[in-house]
Amino acid sequence: MKNHIKVNGRLLPTNKHFSQLKENQKNWIIPELYNLYHNKMKEIRTTRKLPPRHRDTVISSLYEQIQDREIWIPYGEVKKYTYSKTTKMVKLFRKRFPKLSEEIESEHG
Question: Distance between CA atoms of 109 and 68, rounded to whole angstroms?
């Protein structure tokens, strides 16, 4: 059992991948990630990738919500998944909020 840890009397795998989550767990995590990321983009008024400290805030917030729902997945896996979807999230932000995107772009020149 080298790839497991015992937490609250339960054995949890330390090498679990995002793809191993149940479909309903993924279907909850993905939109939540997009919402958190888009809200942070609105908050700091950018249409580009988030700077590292803001991105880490989004990932930490998402991971706390995942833990509250008692979904077990390592933090590194959530971080890796977020990095892989960053470009898609930025493009979707521009599609979902075209007027806001134009307004933000015009502010930054």
Answer: 41
